[in-house]
Amino acid sequence: MNLRAKAYVIAAFAGLALSAHHGAAQTPAYPSQRITVVVPAVAGGASDIIGRIMSQHLQKSLGQSIIIENRGGASGSAGAIAVVRAAPDGHTLFLATSSQVVINQFVLKNIGYDPLNDLVPIAFVAAAPELVAIPSTFPATTWKDFLAALKAKPGAYNYGTPGAGTPPHLAIERIMQVTGTKMAHVPFRGSAAAMIDVAAGNIQMSMATLASIEPFRQAGTARILAVASNKRLKAIPDVPTLEEAGLPDMEMSVWWGVMGPKGISRDIVQLLNARLREAFTDPENTATLDKLGITTFAEPTEMFEKFIQKEVKMYEGVVKGMGLEPQ
Fold first, then answer.
1. What integer pLDDT is reported at residue 28 of this predicted model?
2. 285 vs 12, 13, 56, 157, 194, CA distance in Å?
3. What percent of the chain has pLDDT over 70?
4. 131-227: what fold?
């Protein structure tokens, strides 16, 4: 190689090096500003508690301030839309629930976003299984006994939920589809209102999370027959799962996962996934949530993606089987 050729090669490599250096310099560090976590519920509930656990850990591990933005309304769709419209730079995150990611698209008209395309899964963090609750005065002490009573008198009993298209409503409808039983639906304004009527014996069943049922169980006015999960809850280890009670493949819960807007980089997703897995394996955090009947998770992003696909298939089938029209 002559001197002119050598000089050309050296100059070319120098140019590439400068270009690479310039490109790296233009890539902003993450996070470079305050992070907003949108929580699709009012302050004070389980979503808010999970959001604050998540935010406190991220603030320490990422070195940036985190704020919680509570956005209720339209079953949380308003919060989802806010995240979908945000810049996909990782500075706006969504603490989504099963309603915004899976259920709303089947029970509501024009939710304003496509959950499977406009939101990117980051981490599945927690789930609160639905529990079968009946009045303590009802003559059944096990799920098997209660199921026998339903089959003996089809359509004679009522069940209550927080409203049409809510997770408890779809969970009970799924149970009826699988078991071939019939009950009349009585909608209430929230799980607490439904449980008051369960405790009074005005309705014969409801499904809700432990936080809604436990006060009535402690008072002796309601009985928990089973947990719709693949394992018992640490807070009520004496209560069997539906599978143990003879009804397999009945995992139904209110769950929480962190998501970002479409276009968020895979590097940011993986970083956040790692930090969130740390947060939800922290013994203090898991103990806090265990008391509320909430199980924590620390899985890779791919697991969350597969879980969402499974949930979509299940709930779509339930809604179609009910003939429920979007409202």
1. 64
2. 54, 52, 11, 40, 29
3. 91
4. D-Maltodextrin-Binding Protein; domain 2 (3.40.190)
